[in-house]
Amino acid sequence: QVQPVESGGGLVQPGGSLRLSCAASGSIFRLRYWGWYRQAPGKQRELVASITGGGTTNYAGSVKGRFTISRDNTKNTVYLQMNSLKPEDAAVYYCNDRSGLAPRYDWGQGTQVTVSS
Fold it and tell me: Cβ(46)–Cβ(35) under 8 Å?
């Protein structure tokens, strides 16, 4: 199994925006349930957004209204559009297939998001 690859992180000022990408593989990508997670220093990894194969989305309360998860099944890619970023959004962001009881893949390197003026 090929691990998904996250990209798109960077340094942004409070109130700014970033779009993260998660490139995955697999012929049944379109059927899988994907999630974006984040982990800040000293904190546990948390799920921030998820999207089913049918496109149903769900968000953590802390990001609802600011983040949007989407997917392009033709590109085997999941996106996370992050707007109105806050310093507390700073973390390493990861994606994973969460179709089963546990994330399908080992955690990769993720992509770092830094929110600072």
Answer: no
